[in-house]
Amino acid sequence: MAKPTILRPHAETIYASELKALGKQDKAPRPEGWKLSPRAVVDYLVGTTLEDGTEISIKYFGNRRLIEVAVASLVTDRALLLVGIPGTAKTWVSEHLAAAISGDSTLLVQGTAGMSEDALRYGWNYARLLSEGPSEAALTPSPVMTAMQAGKLVRLEELTRIPSDVQDALITILSEKTLPVPELNQEVQARRGFNLIATANDRDKGVNELSSALRRRFNTVVMPLPATLEDEVEIVATRSRATAENLRLPIPAEHDPAGEIRRLVTIFRELRSGKTEDGRTKLKIPSSTLSTAEAISVLNQSRSLAVHFGNGELSAEDLAVSLSGAIVKDPKQDETAWREYLDVVVRNRKGWEDLYEVLKS
User: What count of other Cβ atoms lies within 10 Å of the Cβ of residue 223?
Assistant: First the structure.
C-alpha cells in the first residue's frame, strides 16, 4: 500500500533544504539550544540569497525589523506575544520561528475557552495512576513540559481565549522557568533553549484579558496588516499558489489570475478600511474580519471551483460565489454593506463590469 501523502507537512519538513543550507553557512554565534543564529532565523523568515546561490524563500512579507525584534525577544528570558487581528500571520510566524530555532514546530497548545491547567502543565495516565499511584511513569507531560525538558520553543495559540485562572498557570513557568509537580515532590527545570511564543487577538468574542502579572512576562510584538495593496496582492498570490501546489490543483500554466487576485484584495481592503483606495468614498464596514488569510481562503475556494467545475481558469463567476460567502456573515448588517458597495463602487468601476453582473444577481 502506498504511503499516504501528508495534507499539511510541518514547516521544518517543507523547508528542510533551506534550513540545512542556512545551517551550513551560518557562522554567527548561536544561543545555546538554537539550531540557527538569530540573524539566520530572520533571514529564513524574510528571505535572502546565500553565498552559494541558494534562494531562501520569503515566509513573512513585511518589515524585517519587526521579525528582528521578535527573534531578539526569544534570545532573552522573556516569552514572546504576537498580537494582531485575525489573519495577520501570527500563527504562520510562530510556526516558522519554532522550526528555525528549535527544528520542531510541533510543540503546540491550542487555547480554548474550556481549557484546563492540565493542558499547560501535565496530566495523568489514570489507569496507571489507579494501579500504581502517582509516579513518573503515570505522568503525561504537556507540550510545555516537553519543551522545558528538551530546551525547545513551545507555541501557545489564542492565549486570550483561555480562562484567566488557567492563564495564570504560566506565571511560574515564565518567571521561574520551573514547573512544580507537587504529587511527586519534584519540579521540572527548563533547559537552555526553552521559551514560549503565544498569539492573541482582540477581535474575537470571548476574549479574556491578560492579568498584569502575566503580561509583564511577555515582550509584545504587534502584527500589522499589509501596508499597501501591492504587498497584500503578493502575499495572497504567493500563499495561494503554494496551497494549490500542495492540493495538486491542475491550474493551467498559461493562466495568470493576477487581475482577479488584485480585484479580490482591493475589495477586502476597501471594505475593511471603510473607504475606497483613493479615499474619495466612505463605505459601511461589514462585521467579518476580511483579513489577508480570509482572502487567501476565498482565492483557494475559487480556484477549486474553476478547476473542478469550470475550464481551469479563474473567472469572475468563480470569485463571486466565494466572495459573497466570505463577506456576508451577518445577514442583516453585512448584506446592507455589501449591496451598497456593489452599487456604489463595483458598478461604476471601469473593468469590473463582469464582476458586477455576476454579483448583482
Answer: 20
Degrees to nearest 5, angle at CA 157 with 153 and 161: 140
Whole-prediction pTM: 0.90
Task: pLDDT tens for the chain, 361 residues: list them.
Answer: 445 578 889 999 999 999 999 999 999 999 999 999 999 999 999 999 999 999 999 999 999 999 999 999 999 989 999 999 888 899 999 999 999 999 999 999 999 989 999 999 999 998 888 888 888 889 999 999 999 999 999 999 999 999 998 999 999 999 999 999 999 999 999 999 999 999 998 766 567 888 899 999 999 999 998 889 999 999 999 888 888 877 777 766 666 688 889 999 999 999 999 999 989 999 999 988 888 989 999 998 998 888 888 888 888 888 888 888 889 888 888 899 999 999 999 999 999 999 999 988 7
CB-facing half-sphere around the CA of 91: CA atoms within 13 A? 15
User: CB within 8 A of 129, min separation 6: which ones?
Assistant: 138
Give the total residue count for the chain. Answer: 361
Same domain, 162 and 15: yes
CA 37 to chain CA centroid, nearest Å: 23
Torsion over CA: 349, 350, 355, 361 (sign) = positive
Range of the domain at 144: 11-222
The single residue listed with the C-alpha cell 525589523 is: 65
Residue 297 lies in a domain: yes
275 forms beta bridges with 282
Position 236 in a domain: yes
